[in-house]
Amino acid sequence: MEKNIREFTKQKTGKYDIELIKPIVFAEQQFLKETYEIYKTFRGKENEDFEVPHSLRSGQVLSEQPELLKKVFELADSLYQSGGQSEINIARNMSSVNEMDVLHTILDREMESYNVYDCPRELVKERLHSNSVENALTAIEKEQDYLASLDGNLNHYS
Asked: Is this structure's pTM higher than 0.85?
């Protein structure tokens, strides 16, 4: 198992394109999930409270939350497309973190940080550079609507 994990790590190393890393992460996570499920089956029903080895924790998470990998990929794409993070930083996180719940939290925090700090900063710039009262009022309305949309939608910065 450790040999396979090292091979996945080697394949991810030096890749800075999200689309090149996704298939490797997908294969790695499928391997960990299948390995965890075999381990769980081997342990038997009488040992349902067994402690999962650290190297199989990601497989356990994916087994219990099969939609998480898709959410991570969507979040990575959204973060990159919004300009909230560079592709290199996202790829670096995807390469170095093999626990999908941890990676999801990292990317979600980055996206939320972008939404809480960077987007409002851009809206303020738009307002400050308005060339008429009407444009300024439109910019203020846009800014306030955006800030109101954050209410109840924050997980990490509330």
From this structure: no
| CB neighbour class for 129 (10 Å; exposed up to 12, middle 13-18, buried from 19) | exposed
- pLDDT beneath 50: ranges in the chain: none
How many Cα neighbours within 13 Å face the side chain of 158? 7
Residue 51 falls in which region: left (phi positive, over 0), alpha (psi -120 to 50) or beta? beta
Intra-chain end-to-end CA distance of the chain, in Å: 40
At 27 the pLDDT is: 95
Q: What is the pLDDT of residues 126-156, one digit of tens each?
A: 999 999 999 999 999 999 999 998 888 888 7
Which pairs count as long-range contacts for 15-21, CB under 8 Å and 24+ apart, including other chains? 15/91, 15/95, 16/87, 16/88, 16/91, 16/92, 17/87, 17/91, 18/76, 18/77, 18/80, 18/87, 18/90, 18/91, 18/94, 21/91, 21/94, 21/95
If you ran DSSP here, which 8-state letter would residue 116 be given? I
- CA nearest to 117, candidates 91, 85, 139: 85
